[in-house]
Design brief:
The chain is α/β, with parallel strands linked by helices. It folds into three domains: 55 residues; 132 residues, no CATH class; 132 residues, HUPs (Rossmann fold). It has eleven helices and four strands. Strand 1, helix 6 and strand 2 form a beta-alpha-beta unit. The mean pLDDT is 90.
Length: 348
């Protein structure tokens, strides 16, 4: 039973860590790590137990593992196809190429790692051979780290987006996402419609939350996003006395900071509900936490074809925002690879 007990104990530990973290603050990114680790060890426990008690189950496990490369290849093809659709539907921009780039890397990175290993497997062992193997090993470690991080981020983005926070909002902040020819496009309209649902529910309960549509004027926009968003809210039934646009922000962090200032100017200091698209909820929530805001985030629907590229953009943004943490996390991989390279030459 030890084979089953070890992963079961790890699963229990991570479940407890997740429960404590979520209770403390559901906006913490580490909750996603704990939840993903708990799910992994719970799956390992179940697989180990079934392998011990079900004859032939190990063959099923082996077959599934053999299908993993095929699944990865299918994922790569799907990402590439999505990338081309993004370029056709949304235009050429760096953000719209992320799924295409990710799909290409799914094939390129393993090919490069394999090529480095194979090219260093000839007779003799030179410094260059050892360096190529070290680079290949480091690629495996670093790519594995970011792959696991992406899975944890994806899992917790879905979980957080489906949470019922029970927040009674004093203020509803709607994050901008860009105008098209000065008008509200479908992506931004979904956020505004979600905010109106929350607003109307609060009005029906006898409360009057402040609505803050937040967004400044981009270089390619004829007017501020907050102004166009406020017009949409008013045209769809919001009371003019409840709408205070914020028109200076240029990114999500400024959306939250400047909206908090608008809220304070209006004499409101209560809880905040932030509305954005579903792919954006977790990063917006972590930013709100880092800014010390009493805010939870809810998401609005997004066109399915748009989600992969947008989600990858959010993950890249989170990696950049926590770049020093990621550098520290990857440092042991570099040191371990350097150690292996040193040992290989010591034993020549």
């Amino acid at each position: 039973m030890t084979a089953v007990g070890v992963p079961a104990c790890f699963a229990l530990v991570f479940v407890l860590l997740y429960a404590l973290g979520r209770r403390r603050d559901p906006r913490m990114l580490r909750n996603g790590v704990f939840l993903t680790a708990a799910a992994f060890f719970a799956l390992a426990t179940a697989v180990t137990a079934l392998t011990l008690v079900v004859p032939g189950f190990s063959l099923v496990v082996g077959t599934v593992l053999l299908l993993v490369p095929l699944a990865v290849a299918v994922l790569g093809v799907a990402l590439i196809a999505n990338g081309f659709r993004m370029l056709r539907s949304e235009g050429r921009s760096l953000g719209n190429t992320l799924s295409l780039v990710a799909g290409v890397l799914v094939f390129v990175l393993p090919a490069v790692a394999i090529a480095l290993f194979v090219s260093a497997s000839g007779e003799g062992f030179t410094l260059w051979d050892g360096t190529r193997i070290a680079v290949a090993v480091l690629m495996v470690f670093v790519c594995g780290y970011f792959a696991v991080s992406l899975v944890a981020f994806a899992v917790y983005s879905v979980v957080y987006g489906r949470m019922r926070h029970g927040t009674v909002p004093d203020t509803i902040v709607v994050l901008g996402s860009g105008l098209i020819r000065g008008e509200v496009p479908p992506l931004l309209r979904s956020r505004l419609d979600r905010a109106l649902v929350v607003y109307r529910a609060e009005r029906a309960a006898g409360r009057r939350p402040l609505l803050i549509p937040s967004g400044g004027q981009g270089d390619d926009e004829p007017r501020a996003e907050g102004t166009a968003m406020a017009e949409y809210l008013l045209a769809n039934g919001a009371d003019p006395d409840d709408v205070r646009p914020e028109t200076e922000s240029r990114n999500t962090r400024e959306n939250l900071r400047f909206s908090r200032a608008v809220q304070a100017e209006a004499g409101r200091d209560g809880q905040v509900v932030v509305v954005t698209n579903d792919y954006h909820v977790l990063r917006a929530a972590t930013l709100a936490r880092r800014l010390g805001l009493p805010a939870q985030v809810v998401g609005s629907p997004t066109a399915p074809y748009y989600v992969p590229s947008a989600f990858l953009r959010e993950f890249v943004a989170v990696v950049v925002e926590h770049r020093w943490l990621n550098v520290v996390a990857c440092t042991p991989f570099v040191l371990f690879t350097a150690f292996l390279l040193w040992e290989s030459f010591q034993q020549r």
